[in-house]
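Researcher: Quick sanity check before group meeting.
Model: Go ahead. Protein one:
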Amino acid sequence: MLLNASGCLDALTAPEVARSLDGFVTKTITPEPRKGNPPVRIAETAAGMLNSIGLANPGRTCFLAETLPRLWELGVPLWVSVGGFSAADYAETCARLEGIEAVELNLSCPNVDEAPESAAAIVSACRAVTSLPLYAKLSPSTWDIAEAARAVEAAGADGLSLVNTLRGLALDERTLLPRLGRGTGGYSGPALKPVALAAVYACSAAVGIPIVGMGGVQSGLDALELIAAGASAVALGTILFSDPAAPARIRSELAVEAAARDLGHPLDARRAAHSSLQMGVS
């Protein structure tokens, strides 16, 4: 299954790109409208990009009344990314959602202040008010991401999204001042892939819930590697900015890479990277 990473695709502006995916993940929705962080919000780097959007969105009421009905018209399974600044914020939004494929709880945006509660406490609050599938989006900066995964699974998460962006900084070559208005931003792009692979690998060994792997995916082989690490679905992020046709290309490449390894389906490679450990090979 191919998805987009939240915030990397405007489905209403590029509906055909959204329809080329198996599901569309919305931008993160917060209870109140947010203008986002001051410009500059995006800076390219040598091996990716930094963004400091700051969860700009129309707010929960406008999203439910205006945006969501338009997204339904696309005919694509919808995942809604939910954010907030307290467990109650998350839970109140989840309670008002229905009929969608899943909820992705954005527990790790590096561009805004985080909720004071733990990720597990937020998941628990949301689980109490909705029966929709809940996917916890965790930060690769977490010291022990496998332990965080176990905690959110115990709290009621149905799946994980791994990984969110890493906090990074880019300086102007002439002034040596930060290139982003907020200073730091979320780093994404090809260099994030080894980080994502490590997180998916560790969490797949720690929990039994599905994982959406994301981070640095540019090719079908990248997607297959995330599946081998333990992902059951893959999300495309930064690549969609430079190559809107990437979903169809990567889907085709993924099939070719699987066939080259005598796999009947790409998901037959799931957790293949763990096999040497299971056999006791060092």
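Researcher: Fine. The other one?
Model: Protein two, sequence then structure:
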Amino acid sequence: MRSTLVVLPSRVRKLHLNWGDVAFSALLPTLAVLAALIIGAVMLALLRANPLDAYAAMFGGALGDVSGLTQSAVKATPLLLVGLGIVIAFRANVINIGGEGQIIVGALMGTWFSLAFRTWPGWLLIPATMIMGFLAGAAWGFVPGLLKARLGVNEILSTVMMNAIALQLMNYLLRGPMIDPAGVKAGTFLAQSERLPESVWLPRLVPQTLLHTGAIVAVVLAVAVYIFLWRTTIGYRIRVVGLNPDAARYAGIRVPIYQVLSLTLAGGFAGLAGVVEVIGVHHRLLEGITSGYGFTGIVAALFGGLHPLGAIPASFLFGSLLVGADKMQRAVQVPSALIDTLLGMIVLFVVGSGLWSRRRAARRAIETEDVAETQSDQTPPPDGERMSVASAAEPSHD
């Protein structure tokens, strides 16, 4: 009996990009924002405010002059820092809702450190303060990561709980150990810390504005996060864990460790955002220091496609919306609740469009695969392949 080795020709399926789908996916977040603005125009009309005048004030106030542009960049800086952490966490398939609390603890640590070591020179005190804020935020993110890895606690619940703890901690400290001594002496008892030494203030990029060097730091870190996620082994493993945890385990990757690492880094970037707000803008810790950046940063990251470089323009867009909404409220005298509603609708539409886009892409992939398999089953094999199969099926005698 002679054995016959038969090599059948392999069929390589060509991948065809549907540029219409690509363009639609790229424009979908913008369309979501436009849809939210249209609904907002209807609400403005119901309040007897001119929507054209309102939106003219909104976009003119954010982008119409140097003051608006710089203020938008100032607002975008903490959004970008929080968004970078969200990108890392989401890439590992973990959700960090604890940005608010992480911003608070980073700001608390930065405030304490800069006041405790106020005699240090600025070239040393500024980076040391930023590092300490990053570490404080990272520690706040490490806790829910560890709870998820060891006890299976849902990270959404634990990070939200950590937000409440951080908020109460800040309220206690600003009304007790960290309260401004000058306010106590004057009898005002404001919930704010002592003014930070000027040596720790971030330098201004544009005179007579609030734009500081923290904006440059945030952009540089965005590039660093891109290199980390797409050019390093650890970043590759984080992305594998997020794409398919089972495959990652089969490949020997310790999934819980990288999930903890992702939440820790996310907390670190949020903590850094808190420090930058303190030493770059307010120069003291104030109640309400977060300004909702911990939640808006999530939307900026989603709007940027969960890509660190895409988060840069997305953060500037939402920073502009925050600045413009404030100008619009003053221009057309609408209630602040309408501004919050408008921003909330933008968030809802952007997040919903992202979810719908992912489901649409998954359905398209399944349909394409089914069509390809059907065509493959209906296509007869080539003549050479049929002859090879036939010769292999015939018995051979020596």
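Researcher: One line on it for the slide.
Model: Confidence is low (pLDDT under 50) at residues 1-15, 385-393.
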